[in-house]
Amino acid sequence: MMVQSQFFTSDEAEPVVVENADGKSRVLLVCEHASRRLPARFGTLGLSEDVLASHIAWDPGALAVTRLLSASLDATVIYQNYSRLIYDCNRPPESPSAMPVTSEIYDIPGNADLSDAERFARTSALYIPFHDRIGELVAARQDPVLVTIHSFTPVYHGKHREVEIGILHDTDARLADVMLAHAAGASFKVERNEPYGPEDGVTHTLRLHALPNGLLNVMIEVRNDLIQDEEGQRVAADFLHGLLVAGIATDAS
């Protein structure tokens, strides 16, 4: 708490937000990259407003889709309320990408040459409270299903990505397998472990909370040009709702 009080000003938002805490669904929806907000003490990290609005700072549309799924499933949501440029809560503290010096084609001046003390402060203020709260929510539920929601840029390092929705998993593919089977022939181009996979370190939250506890789990990536507006967000959320319900029903049968 002392580290947090020094890290944030008194009028800044809490780093971890839980919505629909009493949701009746087994599903716990996690959105690690929900916000582009920066704590006041960091200014702009030396970046322009255009860069701070881009995918390197957050996952555009991901929280909106997460909230729609929360409403349709009656599921609890937990999300990180600050930019992943300060701390990427889907990475462990020892990972270079937890506090990235570069992201895609952009250097991040405010993350250069971080001291051990600064890395510890960010970890203590952002990463630990976030994952502690996920752990509490998991422990309070019987047989929860952990679902993390992300979005990705359609063009990365100049290359266009054809995949529209990625269904990602680590060593436990139970839920992903059923979702992918039900996505066959869908209007969306859906692929397994694309545009990233566990070898890229993107399944940290699943590894931390789901795999050790044997929980059904999946990570979902939606291409962000498809969820720029309310209609696109609704269409994507409706599609994902169907896949999740089918996957969970198969597990229960």
Descriptors:
globular, 11 strands, seven-stranded mixed sheet, Aminopeptidase, 253 residues, two-stranded antiparallel sheet, alpha/beta, 7 helices
CATH superfamily: Zn-dependent exopeptidases
Tally of separate domains: 1
Task: Provide the succession of SSEs.
Answer: HEEHHEEEHEEEEHEHEH
Q: What fold name goes in the CATH topology slot?
A: Aminopeptidase
Mean pLDDT reading: 95
Architecture (CATH level 2) name: 3-Layer(aba) Sandwich
Structural class: alpha/beta
Q: How large a portion of the residues is in β-strands, by DSSP E?
A: 15-25%
- Overall 3D form: globular
- Gyration radius (Cα, Å) is 18 Å
Descriptive report:
The protein has a single domain, classed as 3-Layer(aba) Sandwich (Aminopeptidase). The longest helix is centred in the middle third of the chain and has 24 residues, at 116-139. It has 253 residues and is of the alpha/beta class. Helix 3 (62-73) packs across helix 7 and helix 5 packs across helix 7 (230-252). It contains seven helices and eleven strands. Strands 1-3-2-6-11-9-10 form a seven-stranded mixed β-sheet, with helices on both faces. Strands 4-5 form a two-stranded antiparallel ribbon. Helix content is 34%, strand content 18%.
Q: What is the secondary structure topology, with strand pairs?
A:
Layout: H1 2-7, E1 16-19, E2 27-31, H2 49-52, H3 62-73, E3 76-80, E4 102-103, E5 106-107, H4 116-139, E6 145-152, E7 155-156, E8 159-160, E9 165-168, H5 174-183, E10 190-192, H6 204-210, E11 216-223, H7 230-252
Parallel strand pairs: 2-3, 2-6, 6-11, 9-10
Antiparallel strand pairs: 1-3, 4-5, 7-8, 9-11
Helix pairs in contact: 3-7, 5-7
